[in-house]
Amino acid sequence: MKKTYFSLMVMFSLSILKLNAQNDCSTAYEYASEFVGTSFATVTNTSAPVGPNYGCLSSCSNPTWIYLQICVPGNIAINIISNGVTDVDFVAWGPFSNQANMCSGIFGGTSAIDCSFATSTTEQVNFSNVAVGEFYMILVSNFSNQPGTFTLTAVAGTTGASCDSTGIPAPFPVCTYPTQQICKVSTNNVVNKNVIVWNEDNAFVGDYNVQREATTMNVFSTIGTVSSVDSTTFQDPISNPIQQSYRYRIQSVDTCGNITYSYPHKTIHLLTNYNTFTGYPQLAWNNYQGFNYPTHYIYRGTSPQTLSLYDSISASFTSYTDVAPLAGTNYYSIAVNPPVPCTPLRAIDLSFSNVSPVLVTSIEELGESLITVYPNPSNGIINVSFGSNIVSGKLSLVDITGRELMMNHLQNINQFQLDASDFAAGFYYLMLQTDTGTVRKNIIVSK
What we know:
Elements: H1 6-9, E1 15-18, E2 29-30, E3 37-41, E4 63-72, E5 74-83, E6 88-96, H2 102-107, E7 114-116, E8 122-130, E9 135-142, E10 149-154, E11 161-162, E12 182-188, E13 193-198, E14 206-213, E15 220-227, E16 233-235, E17 247-254, E18 259-261, E19 265-266, E20 270-275, E21 280-285, E22 295-301, E23 308-314, E24 319-321, E25 328-336, E26 351-352, E27 356-360, E28 363-365, E29 372-374, E30 381-385, E31 391-399, E32 404-413, E33 415-419, E34 426-434, E35 437-445
Parallel strand pairs: 1-3, 2-4, 28-35
Antiparallel strand pairs: 3-10, 4-9, 4-11, 5-8, 5-10, 6-7, 6-9, 12-13, 13-16, 14-15, 14-17, 17-18, 17-19, 20-21, 21-24, 22-23, 22-25, 25-26, 25-27, 29-30, 30-33, 31-32, 31-34, 34-35
């Protein structure tokens, strides 16, 4: 398109209105001096970022960023005329050799070349001896914080000119402020480490900083950085899922310097124990945090490598008793299913807790010929005899809820006495745990 000199521009009345004027340096609007007036909606209730040298402006509220490239050398003067705004100010920087180094130069402290904070509805920006290919940035401040518009109009007689909207260069690169969300956090139980997984975003260019919550709630620190061109998984090298649950988030930093944060995700931590009263393994865990899910899946196996789906319960509940355990050591893990498949691990989409083992020992109720309790019922001293057997182990008295009321360690004896006079009337269990297993005898306390 033919370039038009400013001496002829007063003949034109074309105006372009930028409605969404809340931008930043990396998304600056292009000013094309082909047009007599280019209008922008003003911004209110915002502040300029910390870092640039704002020249004469002690404060820079409600900023709108605008850039131009020079296509005709000379001098350029641009009027900033406000409509509905009683006080506009400005600061300008340049020249810059290319688009890519404009913002880095400004935020690196490049000095302003023109600036004004006059109490007026009109300001004038001046660029002297501009050269073809140079770039300049203008920041207009709506100091009065009033809604309205302002128009950039070239001053008649100006010799230089910026490129029109269809000329070179290509549009200023726009960064999209992406917020990369975590797909899931899970436990790699082979190495006992947590893995953070997110799906690939082809539109994003920059770095993902994987952050973990520190010892203070909602305070996160970076534990690793992954480039957008690399993997979309990260293994926390110092996590210990057996010990505790962990909370993670992703900080996305694009090439324009924009920073966003994902929602935090928290791993499941499983605790298990063996209930000597019932003889059953008991499981308890915390809810996964980061996405909604309807079901907790319970995995069981004879080793961490042989886990398979054993049962499932509603996500409303976080405890479970295995009433049909295998003899020996049972290994358990809890899993939930993310609502969105995680691309890198589609074959294993579930998010798993740590693996926790439980040793299941046998419980036998011995007959009178092997263990004798008398008198039974009793309201006082109860004699316990093991006949000709010499035993060592832990002897406990528990109530029907499994609560331990009395405990003694036996060492090479064949008889024992316990005082039940302080116990309420009812049924009790006498539990003997030895190296070979656990035996139980029913006791009745009467009053």
